[in-house]
Model the fold of this input.
Amino acid sequence: MNKFSAIKSPRRAADDLVISKVEVTTEPAGAPRRRRTSTLSRGMVAGVLASVLAVSGVLGWAATSLDGSEEMSSEQLSIELAIPEAAVLSVEKGFEDRSQAASRGAVRSNLTEAVAGEVAKDRDAVLDASVEESHKHEAEGSAAEREALMAADMELVKAQEAKLKKEAEAAALRLEEARKAAEAPSGGGSATSATAEDLAAISSSGGSMPVKSNYRVGARFQATGSWSRYHTGQDFPAPTGTPIYAVASGIVLSPTAGGWAGTNVVIQHSNGGSTLYAHMSKRVAGTGQAVKAGQLIGYVGTTGRSFGAHLHMEYYKPGVTPGKVYEASDPIAFMRSVGVNI
Ligand SMILES: [Zn+2]
Done:
């Protein structure tokens, strides 16, 4: 279910509501009113609001300390307490095209950003910051815009469906040939089209982590937040250039045509399922190539619709066309099924 697109209300009007609220609260009386709608990003609005909240919190506390809470009527107190909640609700109205969690996340990431300079000194901190950065940017643009882009991508995938199906069938045949050749008594003399590469690929059972060092386990499959509907794969934030390995052996198909994935590799596995590795800075496995589990297939990057270097990996069960993101399954479950301890 798409809870984002289900909400339909005039976004522009709600934005203006929040902006004017911020202006009234922060600018001195008589100051020239400037129209900030076009220059203030939502993140900035959230930041300003966060400061306003902090200031009103402090003032509220100071007033209570000076006056003594006994002297404030319960009505006054409830008004004081109601301010932050009302403000938060206003922000959420302004961010109506996202979930409440994402709206709060935007405010939180802005606050986090303020101290990022202090903590981003070692490698771990840099990785964490890149996760924050990617979420912050993914949150920009409306759900409707993201949905439209994905709809266009799904059309592209649909257009290449027949071609991918043929490739997958050919790959399955090759893997079957290789299996037969490997099982045949040596020197049997039967003609086989299996190449040494094919034989090597089917000889490697088991699985591999797609990234082996310098990475984080990021957003999970079906997480909700800044995505068009939900997160359709597993993220591994890692620096650009981090090697990416095939999770299981198989044959490389044509990359998905979906523009979101940027430079990507799709591998058809012997179980009939397939994996997709997105946002690469470079791919080093060519279409039609047989690869072993753990073989280098490319490098982490941030191509396609990605903000911040990370590997986004998807898994498709047998019969599902690679790239049909809304029919993808949990990559972690597949990794575990081939023996990867994650
Ligand atoms: Zn992802």
